[in-house]
Amino acid sequence: MGANNNRNRPRRGRHHNGDDIVRPVGGRYASLIVGPAIGLTVLCAHAQTAPSNTAPDAAPVAASAPGAAEPDKPKTARKSKVASDTTTLNTVEITANRRREPAREVPMQVNALSAQELQRKGDQSVRDYLKEQPGVSLVSGGNGAGNNISMRGVTTGSDIGPTVGVYVDEVPFGSSTNYGGGASHALDMALLDLNHVELLRGPQGTLYGAGAMGGLLKYVTNEPDTEGGLSGRAGVMFSGTEHGGFNHTEDAVVNVPIKQDVAAFRVSAFNQQDAGYVNRIGSDPEKGVDGTTTRGGRASLTVTPTRDLTIRLTATTQQIKSDGSSLVDYNFTTRQPIFGDLTQSRQANEPYSQLIELYSANIEYDFGWARLNSISAYQTVRNSNLSDGTSTFVPLANSVVGAPMFTSGIEQFALSTDKFTQELRLTSPANRKLEWIAGLFFTDERSTNDQILNVTGPEAFLNLVSAQLPSTYREYAGYGDLTYHFTSRLSATAGLRIAHNDQTFTENVSGPFSGGATSKSAQSADTSKTYLFTLDYLLTQNSSVYGRVASGYRPGGPQPSVLDVTTGKMSSATFQPDTLTSYELGYKADFLEKRASISLSAFDIEWKDIQLFNVVDGLNLITNGAKARSKGLEFFGSLVPTPQWHLGMGLAYTDARLTQDVTGIGARSGDRLPNTPALSVAANLDYLFNVGSYRAYLGATESYVGRRTSGFPNSQSTPNFELPAYVATDLRAGIDLRKANVSLFVHNLFNRRGMQSASNSFVQLGGPSQILFIQPLTIGMQVDVPF
């Protein structure tokens, strides 16, 4: 941590709320808010705040994120969304080290994405948030389905467990395991009264636990504001997408102070309708088959009954529904669309649905000598989808029965996770020679994964496979770190986390393609240690250098043991944890009277015992059998040559490769790790000006994503599809009319067909590659009205 940390907690009654966003809607979605609010049964206090400014018109740190926006201000500030005169890293506070502190003082590479700036750009989903973040990759089915996030090249393409952790405020979200879909269902949180989003790059295992090997994505929400009177905002957004249709979003937030400096209630809701842009042909043709409806709400209550005690209760719900995926069918060999531009062929509908509910309670008590936080949370995640398997499974089924009886095949998936977490954390006061954090963490996670494969015909039906895959995950962990300030310039931090988990897994399968009805169970247990060590040196009041060594891990797990006919032995019933160690050097500074900022880092990650879907003697197993190394450079900078002109840039160079062969899948040492471009860049330019007495802005973003592989080049199980580099251009403009903010945005100005990711699961069975493209040309307008 830096040598000049901010205070350990804000003055009573002061909350850093965004006066710039509001996501939510009116009465017909009230049940989405009331239900979760009633369900709150545990207390909690919020231990973090959003970015705040030290100067009235300070703008965000573009060095924190390319084109980062003005940090959100308290409701009482009533500043213009487009007001922005200076830029400095010192104005952005983040919570990466479980303390509120300026981004420049945190000895790691961390980006803070202001919700105001995301909204200004017309961004509404995790695909939008991450598209301009160099060094961060997303593999998705579009329409909110199947998000897999990776950072700094820490991915194998088809990850067993998540390599990037996801938090909502102080609560870890989603499953930690393969069986709970943790790697493929990263939370896609709409701008539901968010304050900002933090991206922590590099392993965060010591403070954030399992799965945060490549980094952490943290959603930070607005807190209820106890000051002033009733306030809030309402907004509407309209847009049209080429090859698609009409999109719209309605949102609102209301803040109700109950007693000044003591209690406040905040409620928000939103309704988002995306028309989609992929067309489907086949038995049920549809335009915009990937059209999606996203609705959600949040209710939050903050009570500060005494100077030292703060209680925050929060309930969040969000539902995503879509008629189909955004994947386009491509010929794997010719690399051409099979059915036309942005078109897929399906013989069956592929609806997707996700419902999440998150209830958290945070109790914070300040003893003076330390601050105690008790964070309790309960969450449910319900995912369901259908997948058309006609081209793959109908020929196989017809060959089994010896007649063309079947015409369509449907895979059904239902994945459900219930998770309880409890964390107790003591944090010493800041600005002491010795600072420390100590915590205990517990999670109890139960998942079900039901899968059914049916083929049907005019007068025929056959269940090929039915599988029920229940699993449990329970973890106990203790962690802590110490920061010692040798001088006013030099400090060192050492941290350690010890975690133990127990897991169970059962596989119940039946059907002719399963070899008959069977039931197998397995269990596992492992203990892992992660550590952290940093040295931070303040070169001047506005610049510092740091060195960081950190480790991360993913838990191992159970798997069914099967007979290996080659050896006559049963295969292993477990796979082991995989671990990595990261070495990082960095430099952060403000220049030119804080009108220029840079953040530069170089990293070297050693990853071993990598968990992989592997083929061993003809058996499909999860194994630990590979090593990899990821080296890279990251640069983020901003420049404000005049009060009117703001420039921001981010660049990431990543060389991530296997350093050991994986013979079972044909992967070789030297192969690039999938979905990781060698070079990615984003640049922002904004111009601020006045129209009469009103403040306005114009802006543009240019982003470049380099060539990537979708898998390992020589893999036979999942053939590799080369994804070419692409460039995208976005524009924005807005004006603050005082009583309303009006803005315009353009995404993908030149309507480029940038390939974001590829799925080749069915290529070996004669199926197509399925390609996800960036959103086509989209032009939109939004109006935001504060009250």
Automatic annotation (TrEMBL):
Pfam families: Plug, TonB_dep_Rec_b-barrel. SUPFAM superfamilies: Porins (SSF56935). Keywords: Cell outer membrane, Ion transport, Iron, Iron transport, Membrane, Receptor, TonB box, Transmembrane, Transmembrane beta strand, Transport. Residues 1-24, 51-87, 279-300 are annotated as: Disordered. Residues 103-215 form the TonB-dependent receptor plug domain. Residues 291-300 have a biased composition (Polar residues). Gene3D superfamilies: TonB-dependent receptor, beta-barrel domain (2.40.170.20). It is found in: Cell outer membrane. It is a multi-pass membrane protein. Its main location: membrane. Residues 55-69 have a biased composition (Low complexity). CDD domains: ligand_gated_channel. It comes from the Bacteria. GO terms for cellular component: cell outer membrane. GO terms for biological process: iron ion transport. Residues 322-749 form the TonB-dependent receptor-like beta-barrel domain. Belongs to the TonB-dependent receptor family. This is TonB-dependent receptor. It comes from Caballeronia udeis. The lineage of its organism: Bacteria, Pseudomonadati, Pseudomonadota, Betaproteobacteria, Burkholderiales.
